[in-house]
Specification:
InterPro entries: NAD(P)-bd_dom_sf, SDR_fam, SDR_member_12. It holds the Pfam family adh_short. This is Dehydrogenase/reductase SDR family member 12-like. Helix 2 crosses helix 9 and helix 5 runs parallel beside helix 6. The protein is 47% helix and 12% strand. It has one domain: NAD(P)-binding Rossmann-like Domain (Rossmann fold, 3-Layer(aba) Sandwich). The protein has 318 residues and is an alpha/beta fold. Strand 1, helix 2 and strand 2 form a beta-alpha-beta unit. An 8-stranded mixed sheet has the order 3-2-1-4-5-6-7-8, with helices on both faces. The chain is globular and about 50 Å long.
Length: 318
């Protein structure tokens, strides 16, 4: 079954995820908006899709909070965005999303210091190619991609709920289509460690989180999306062979960011139901046909508490 999924997914990717497949027929009016006075928090905002998203929002007048791990790269990216957009309401916050206690502390501080947050964009991610643990004993990919996203979102929901037209967008990956939610091995402790599949599993987890958040918090518009195969520093570093093989068939970072920006800014996106998976500004199925990747109700009911449990286990005083 996994071979079937991988073959079908790759063929789908060649057809839908490349530069040539990026739509040229989007409705330009969807993004003819001003978002002056609205605030946006973007993780992983100093390069790739995160930076392209921050740039696009800054050009529309939004207040942008860039959450980045590396201070020098973050400040350099901020300078680029301010220079090109003319918008000085760009703020840098330094945070390592793999350190879950620090993520919780950041979210709590942000709620104290800011009276509103209109849009949260969960973009930061990683693909660590060997099994490594963070300082709290959590596997790094899971800690960053899933638990960091979970803790940041959960803790900012009260602030989002108080804000006008609140939205949460999570940047997932089409790779999640080859994965079924695996509740019994969240830390990748059993079996062969394949970083590509671990990353895909984390991205499936993000889709499940989005679906469950949409049901639990109807006042907020939740969405999760696939940017296509984009030429970003993260892809070239984590998947050098794939990056070399695909070459100029990869989308630009701006093309990869387009649907994120559309979901964050447009009225058309807000008219879509909450909790959907998007690709090229359209909701698309979150499962391949006949791939047996749907989760049971029981699996989902176990997964959400497991995220909470891992949070509490890594820092019991929360």
């Amino acid at each position: 079954m996994s071979l079937y999924r991988n073959i079908i997914w790759f063929l789908k990717g060649i057809h839908e995820y490349t530069r040539s497949a990026a739509s040229q027929n989007f409705n330009a009016q969807d993004l003819s908006v001003s978002v002056v006075g609205r605030s946006f928090l973007i993780t992983g905002a100093n390069s790739g899709i995160g930076k392209a998203t921050a740039m696009a929002i800054a050009k529309k007048g939004g207040t942008v909070h860039m959450v980045c791990r590396n201070k020098d790269k973050a400040e350099e990216a901020r300078a680029d965005i301010v220079r090109e957009s003319g918008n000085t309401e760009i703020h840098v916050h330094i945070l390592d999303m793999s350190e879950t206690r620090k993520v919780w502390e950041f979210a709590e501080a942000f709620k104290r210091e800011h009276f509103s947050l209109n849009v949260l964009i969960n973009n930061a991610g990683c693909m660590v190619n060997t099994r490594e643990e963070n300082s709290e004993g959590l596997e790094k990919n899971f800690a960053t991609n899933t638990l960091g996203t979970y803790i940041l979102t959960q803790n900012l929901i009260p602030l989002l709920q108080k804000s006008r037209d609140p939205r949460v967008i999570t940047v997932s990956s089409g790779g999640m289509l080859v994965q079924k939610l695996q509740v019994d091995n969240l830390q990748s402790e059993r079996g062969h460690f394949d970083s590509t599949m671990v990353y895909a599993q984390n991205k499936r987890q993000q889709v499940v989180l989005t679906e469950q958040w949409a049901k639990a918090f109807p006042v907020i518009h939740f969405s999760v999306m696939h940017p296509g195969w984009a030429d970003t520093p993260a892809v070239s570093t984590a998947m050098p062979q794939f990056h070399q093989m695909m070459g100029d068939r990869l989308r630009s970072a701006e093309q990869g960011a387009d649907t994120v920006v559309w979901l964050a800014l447009s009225k058309a996106a807000a008219r879509q139901p909450s909790g959907l998976f998007f690709q090229d500004r359209k909701p698309v199925p979150a499962h391949l046909p006949l791939a047996w990747t749907h989760s049971s109700t029981e699996e989902i009911q176990r997964f959400m508490p497991e995220c909470s449990l891992n949070t509490l286990t890594s820092h019991p005083h929360i």
